[in-house]
Amino acid sequence: MIELTPLARPYAKAVFASALDAESIDEIKEELKTMALVSSTTEVKSLIEDPTLSNNEILNSLKALLDGSISKSSQSLLNVLAENNRFNLLEAIFEIYKEIVAKHKEQKFVEVFVATAPSSDTEETIKTRLVSTYGEGTNVEFKIDPNIMGGLSIKVGDETLDLSVKGKVKKLINQLNF
To answer: Most buried one in 40, 58, 62, 128, CB count within 10 A?
Structure first.
């Protein structure tokens, strides 16, 4: 059996780009799920694999089955699949699309270490800056660490931006010791 993932990937990427532009990522995901479920039934599989039917006949049958449950964007995907004789990729396209959406929605987790609890205004300013830098949905958590003496230290994944008094003193000592 031929591996369908490499064939389906360009279609899934194109659908995702279109959904991203239209701000309808989740709606398209549900439509792709519906199309994948329909295409996995034995009746539709036999329809798709029937050599006596033209691609347009298969396309019209699929559109009739899915009437009202898919948008113009998903109908365009069906049209492209008909042109390229690739109806068998619907399930693979859905699986790859799910992976792309999961990667896209990955959220950053940022830890901010401070010596003392910041005021609510300062905390909001820091959060706003971090969200604008790392994107919407960034989770910012403040942690009290009196060992840093003052300032703050920001940790994102395995990267740390040390703006603390302790960090500056260490840097100064290293420079003096060369």
So the answer is: 62
